[in-house]
Amino acid sequence: METKTAAVSLRNISKSFGAVKANENVNLDIYKGEILALLGENGSGKTTLMNMLSGIYFPDEGQIMINGKEVIIASPKHAFDLGIGMVHQHFKLVDVLSATENIILGLPGKLNIKEATSKIKEICDKYGFEVDPDQKIYNMSVSQKQTVEIVKVLYRGADILILDEPTAVLTPQETEKLFAVLRKMREDGKAIVIITHKMHEVESLSDRVAVLRRGTYVGDMMTKDTNAQEMTNMMVGHAVTLNIDRPEPVDPKKRIAVRGLTVRSMDGILKLDDVSFDAFSGEILGIAGISGCGQKELLEAIAGLQKVEAGSISYVYDDGKKDELLGKDPLKIQEMGVTLSFVPEDRLGMGLVGNMDLADNMMLRSFRNGSGFFTDRKAPAQLAKTVVEDLEVVTPGISTPVRRLSGGNVQKVLVGREIASAPKVLLTAYAVRGLDINSSYTIYDLINKQKEAGVAVIFVGEDLDVLLQISDRILVLCGGKVSGIVDGRTADKNQVGMLMTRVGGGENEQ
Amino acid sequence: MSNKAKEPLFHIVKRDDTTKKKAYMVRAIAILAALIVCAIVTTLLTGANPIKVYGTIFSGAFGSARRTWVTLQSLAILLIISLALTPAFKMQFWNIGGEGQVLIGGLAAAACMILCGDRLPAGKSVPSWVVVVLMIGASLIAGAVWGLIPAMLKAKWNTNETLSTLMMNYIATQLVAYYTILWEVPKGSGKIGIINQSTEIGWLPEIGNKYLLSIIVAVVVTAGMYLYLNYSKHGYEIAVVGESERTARYVGMKVKKVIVRTMALSGALCGLAGLLLVGGINHTVTTTISGGQGFTAVMVSWLAKFNPITMVFTSLLIVFLERGAGEISTIFGLNQSFSDILTGIILFFIIGCEFFINYKVSFRSKNVKEEKENV
After folding, report:
1. In B, which residues are within 8 Å of A24 by CB distance?
2. 3-state DSSP call for residue B91?
3. In this structure, are strands A283-288 and A473-478 parallel, antiparallel, or unpaired?
4. Tens digit of pLDDT for each residue in A140-185?
5. What is the spatial distance between Cα A369 and Cα A379, in angstroms, rounded to a whole number?
6. Separation between Cα atoms, residue A468 and residue A496, nearest integer Å
7. What structural domains does chain A harbor?
8. What is the DSSP letter of A122?
9. First-to-last C-alpha distance (Å) of chain B
10. Which range has the worst mean pLDDT, A179-188, B136-145, B292-301, B348-357?
11. B252, A58: Cβ pair inside 8 Å?
12. Over the stretch B217-246, which tens digit does the pLDDT of each residue have?
């Protein structure tokens, strides 16, 4: 790459948080007209590094050079002045304002919506964005919001773009659209850094990959000279296998029967519309769909946490006897003797208590045990120790608050607790969201083990590649309706992607 | 590098690794720094010798056996109120109605004393122990009801508990004012005066001396609250509900029930403090009998980070400063406000030092040096 000029050079960047070294002597060059994929496991320091570039953190040591000149980036505004723009994983938009208003928010000078709108249109035309400048954010889909974020960064004149896991919330079709735009930006000579966990995206989009491992820089290579296996090995530091097992279901029996389930949200919006399906023991039923299509409501309804308008959810015993789960709260379901485990999407806001330690979190399910006024602290502590050992949770000890653990370890604690009760039904929502490859595979393994033990697993996922590899059957939700149930072994990605957006699948939601 | 922007003068780094020992060091340094600043302020504003002022504060609180007992008794009452608020706070239910709950408990106790006391015609009098039992029941229930009303409003309609508990304070104060006029002795004085002065009906028994009863109750409540919060099933539910209601529902806890139950406890314990104030210490009730301790207790509980054992020390600090403050205002001819200034400075340092326990400040000079080494 001698012919290209380095837009950004990071030299010996180090940053620690307390005793944790998030980055240590990292050297990285980012070139114009190139898409760089930044790879690394959770906690390898990708986001920290990029946050230093965008002025959110300040490095403890090292230099940053922009176009060959050393600079000090003291604030996000400063980063903008240097042409660096970052699109964060969590959007930072004001819901009640329009796209234009969000884009010019905080810029100096006189407020001139008209002029801004025409400039935004210009940018959109140039790169092929589809955005209505006057549309309010709360009316937008996730992918539209993301587009606004990207336009916002471009509007401010950024020519170095950083995108932190931009595809996590998109459908395959939306992802393709985003990639087309990014390629156009590359042609325009912009430097683009993309952080992602999905290997096939790295392969299809990036020109070069750079790998971080535990805060240190491992190396970089041209994408065309490498493959997913090699990149993964570099990230993890040793060889790993990239196949998810899918054992054949053994003696499947009907376990959960959902009929005509209809759920409305607090403000009267139809979240689930006449949903019917069966889940069998020893089987993984994958649930696919764009986020917010009723997945959360579906799982919470089964777990007894969601008010339901109509329909029924019955638990079927081995002898064919049925028990209605609707209208019962989690405590009642537990008292009925139905062991139903639920790994919710919001790990620290629902499944666990972030400020409590591992042992106390284990107690969430068992604190009622015993008849006395006081809690039994020994059994949960023992369970915490077992989970830490069995699932290789990285933690200073069982009396560490779980919020201090990394995402993967938090999930291991949660899954570990939920499967400890030997469930009959296991509900998981986005079980590997934000997890690195190693942790993800640990979780897939655990789920598969549950399946082999005869548990009926309902697996809500967002990565279609994973859903297609792990599920025996896939139920596709679109706008709260079941748009199809397909066989996981024969379905292809395009078919499921189509069902997710209802293309060729009947009328759309209102 | 002429275009080199200035590195920020300092930046703040969060730290996770502060050891307990280090944290206590920081706190000790903060108190020391607070005393030094207080000394400078004292000298500048009053010209008095700060060492002497400190000496006077100390002797004001612990200068004689009587003063020490009074200090300990005040400590006991403040501690009980602080402990009463703590379960609510741990549940993130901001009960700032301690003042009203104490008052209403005190009023209930006073009502029992008055209605079953000297007013009854001779021959019909009720034995004192019966009155005491009535008072205990009445004040605990009154306090609990005062806590329950905002709790139910919160559980049913999700009203803001800060406002409703605060409003309940005013209702309690006005109720006391109303009954003061109704029961005033002698007529027209606007005061109830000492109740049952001759017969001492309904006066709580003295144990050892007249101060010890409150202190013993405080010790029992402290130990009980520590066990309740840390080892009981209820305490665990309170902690989970406080951290995240969604988690609580997820594991099948009845959030509304926990809120109502906890506030009943919180209010009842405040009522207990009212009982001690009326039946054990003052033998009368006035609108100012709790003296703002319902609010001071909020600070005490927070300073102790809701740990009942630590609360003994934080309430001691506050009571010590208040008692000493009274003393310096008389000895040095300063008014009470000056001691409030000192209290304010000390609290500022104690609360402020938590920042340095959680964060580290890196200054520019260090970085520049390192950069030069790197170049």
Report:
1. none
2. coil
3. parallel
4. 888 888 889 999 999 988 889 999 888 877 777 788 889 999 999 9
5. 10
6. 9
7. 6-236 (3.40.50.300), 253-339+424-510 (3.40.50.300), 349-421 (no CATH)
8. H
9. 13
10. B348-357
11. no
12. 999 999 999 999 999 999 999 999 999 999
Of A71, A330, A346, the CB nearest to B252: A330
CA distance B282 to A335: 52
The SS3 of residue A287 is: strand
Write down the ipTM of this complex.
0.80
A315/A301 Cα distance (integer angstroms): 13
Q: Does the beta-carbon distance from B16 to A20 stay under 8 Å?
A: yes
Pick from A12, A350, A375: CB nearest B250: A350
Euclidean distance between CA atoms A351 and A417, whole angstroms? 10
Q: Could you identify the residue written with the tokens 């290579």? A: A221
Residue B64: how many other CB atoms lie within 10 Å: 9
User: Tokens 């023992």 correspond to what residue?
Assistant: A382
Instruction: Provide the residue ranges of all domains of chain B, joining segments of one domain with +.
Output: 76-319
- Helical ranges in chain B per DSSP H: 20-46, 50-62, 65-90, 98-115, 128-157, 161-182, 212-231, 233-243, 245-250, 255-275, 293-303, 308-331, 336-358, 364-374
CA dist list (Å): A457 to A83, A207, B272: 48, 39, 53
User: Residues 337 to 376 of A: which have CB under 8 A from any B CB?
Assistant: 342, 344, 346, 349-356, 360, 363-365, 367-368, 373-375
pTM of the complete model: 0.79
CB B220 within 8 A of CB B308: no
CB A314 within 8 A of CB A256: yes
For A308-351, give the DSSP string. Answer: -SEEEEEEE-TTS-EEE-TT--HHHHHHTT--EEEE-S-IIIII
Locate A291 and state its tokens.
């986020």
